[in-house]
Amino acid sequence: MENILNLKSEILAQITSAADLKTLDEVRVSAMGKKGKLTELMKNLGSLPLEEKIALGKSLNIIKNEIEQAIESQKNILEAKALDEKLKKETIDVTLPIRPETQGRIHPITKIYEEIEAIFGQMGFDVVNGPDIEDQFHNFNALNMPANHPARQMQDTFYINNDPTMPFDMDSAYVVRTHTSGIQIRTMEKQQPPIRIIATGRTYRSDYDATHTPMFHQVEGLVIDKNITMAHLKGCLYDFMKAFFELEDLPVRYRPSYFPFTEPSAELDIGCLKSKDELKIGAGTDWLEVLGCGMVHPNVLRAGGINPDEYQGFAFGMGVDRLAMLKYGIPDLRTFFESDVRWMKHYGFAPLDFSSMTGGLSDNGGLTR
Ligand code: DAH
Q1: Is the CB–ligand 1 distance for residue 182 below 6 Å?
Q2: Which ligand 1 atom is the nearest neighbour of the CA of 218?
Q3: Distance between CA atoms of 245 and 217, rounded to whole angstroms?
Q4: With pLDDT > 90 as the criterion, what percentage of the chain qualifies?
Q5: Which end of the chain is more exposed for a tag (fewer CB within 10 A), N or C?
Q6: What radius of gyration, in Å, describes the C-alpha atoms of the chain?
Q7: 286/306 Cα distance (integer angstroms)
Q8: Cβ distance 326 to 281 under 8 Å?
Q9: Mean pLDDT on 249-264
Q10: DSSP 342
């Protein structure tokens, strides 16, 4: 009997010190499993004299019940503890924002380029690029601006010495391109008509105020084929302007102008309302110049290796920064390039809000914002 009582307190101690459900089950098996200590004792009862058998059997039954209850209550404690731990691990802080706030922003210039590419892309234009550092042939000469041409002085050009070990030599100097028009020539050199491209990129001039920065952005357009007329130019750019400003009844006008690389040349104005502190596009009786264009000069076609008796074309060039300022009401161009995170937060665009003609140019219906 004493052994039995010792065994009981040993088992009970094991039960209460079992730290998890697995250990508790091991204790149960070692006490009451097929080969458990208590089970063995029960089995041995048969060999005892009757009276002892009855007395011991009774005690063993009581002990067995006690142990079963102890196991049950320890099991409850351990289960509650396990649940508690699980819940603690799965805690959700309901005061957190729904999802992490998007940090990055798309710069308005990138956004405008996306919009322009979406519109011209749908009209069937390819997007091409050219080098920022350009030779004078592509930047000037081939565009009908020979060395003595006065238009060369119109653009305050940054020159780069061809050979830094030698004194500056104007004739062989490179330039950082003053416009994207040189890509017209590079395209013609590579490809015979039909040509239908826009060229995007950075351009550089020595100029600095609220609407001019030494580095700025342009889009160039070039269409060459047989029988291309000024009517194609007008229709194409009119459609572009309406799509870009997202105004179906945007007033536009073509005003005669001069560029060495086009003949005839024009500038495109859009209708607007100018007041002291506001500019409203598409309303009022004022006009705002937004791009230069014209029919490609025969000399330019020749310089690009295209026969002007067989092919004609039109070209246009526009300032992307200016378009961004107009479309998104940004007053000072210099702020575009100051890398101020607060400015980007205010004027920038959500990274996934990309422009498309079907999903929306400047607004995709709030899909990502
Ligand atoms: N290259 C001109 C500029 O930077 C813009 C321009 C005007 C481009 C007329 C053209 C064009 O292709 O036809 O001021």
Answers
A1: no
A2: 4
A3: 18
A4: 63
A5: N
A6: 42
A7: 40
A8: yes
A9: 96
A10: H
